[in-house]
Amino acid sequence: MRRRSVLLSAVSGALTGALTLGRSNEVAARQETASLADHPMTGMWLAMANPPLPDDPQVPVPSLLAADGTVLLMFPVTQKGPQGVQFNSAYVGTWEPETERRAHFTAVQLLSDADGTFLGSVTVDGHPEASEDGQSFVDDNALVMVTIRDAAGAVLQEVSGAGAPAVTGIRMAPGTPGFPGGGSAGTPMTGTPTS
Fold first, then answer.
1. How many other CB atoms are found less than 10 A from the CB of residue 127?
2. What does the domain layout of the chain look like in residue ranges?
3. 43-171 belongs to CATH 2.40.128
4. pLDDT, tens digit (0-9, with 9 covering 90-100), for 47-73
5. Among 31, 47, 163, 193, which residue is least crowded by beta carbons within 10 Å?
């Protein structure tokens, strides 16, 4: 009888410990998520990003790094790539702090042709770093990786961003769309509009 009591106590203690550990992991995860709101990369940005063809000019990309860890990057709906014109979804993914001012995101974009045929996907791992004042960012592309997959999900190509022009961004706010040079490097325009 005594062995059974000791065994039941040990099992009960192990279960209690496991439940406590599980709860502490949940609390730690909630605290980590809550801390994203204070990271300088959290917010809405207008990025100037690189298109698929290296000789094409950068394009404006509204970019959200949300406090819940989600990412939404809005590239143009169509763009010219190595295989011609294709249709693109938004890039959707997640992000986390990498340093005090730098983030690491992974986002996926889906591709189709004009007939609606699914062509595959593009995954981007980016590493933007906020300026000291938190109003702009730069990703020098040294750590960027682009992974291109076919319609079945097989990796066709992995391309390092190293050597590509830097991706820059300006924080958006009411009256500040974030365009470089548009009202003093993205600051709100003042005065009366003229027609």
1. 21
2. 2-38, 43-171
3. yes
4. 999 988 888 899 999 999 999 999 999
5. 193
Structural contact between residues 184 and 191, judged by C-beta atoms closer than 8 angstroms? no
User: Distance between CA 66 and CA 78 in Å, rounded?
Assistant: 25
Which has the closest alpha carbon to 75: 37, 103, 127, 110? 110
Distance CA 102, CA 63 (A): 15
Amino acid identity of 66?
Answer: A
Instruction: State the pTM of this model.
Output: 0.75
- DSSP code string of 8-58: HHHHHHHHHHHHHHHHHHHHHHHHHHHHGGGSTT-EEEEEEE--SSTTSPP
pLDDT-above-70 percentage for the chain = 75
State residue 183's pLDDT score.
54
Sign of CA dihedral 163, 51, 62, 157: negative
**Beta-strand pair 78-81/84-88:** antiparallel
Strand partners, 189: none
Residue from 79, 74, 71 nearest 51 by CA: 79
